[in-house]
Amino acid sequence: QERLVESGGGSVQAGGSLRLSCAASGFSFNRYCMGWFRQGPGKEREGVAVISFDGVTTYYDDSVKGRFTISRDNAKSTLFLVMNNLKPGDTAEYYCATDRLRPFTNRCKTGASDYTGWGQGTQVTVSS
Asked: What pLDDT, in 10s, does the model give residues 18-56?
């Protein structure tokens, strides 16, 4: 059974850093695009960053480019998101997700509706 478990969220001041992790199990993690998404208060879920099955290709939303880094460890079935220079606007519930419909692709989808499996989320709060 597919399972994604996020961790690493917390409360930080603006300019601080956090590292999110997503432990995957129950499916062949190394075959699929993975992504980080977030949903702030009163907002729709939005894409933050996605990474191809082999870790070669990444995509970032403009709002996080240069500040966030997505990576994966296929040997440990774990996805990461390093977030630097955090801003109050980054406050949200952060989710990891997998696109199980398109294996072995470097052309990862970036929309939340394209992802088929989701974790329960981890809260990130950035104060000014």
From this structure: 999 999 999 999 999 999 999 998 999 999 999 999 999
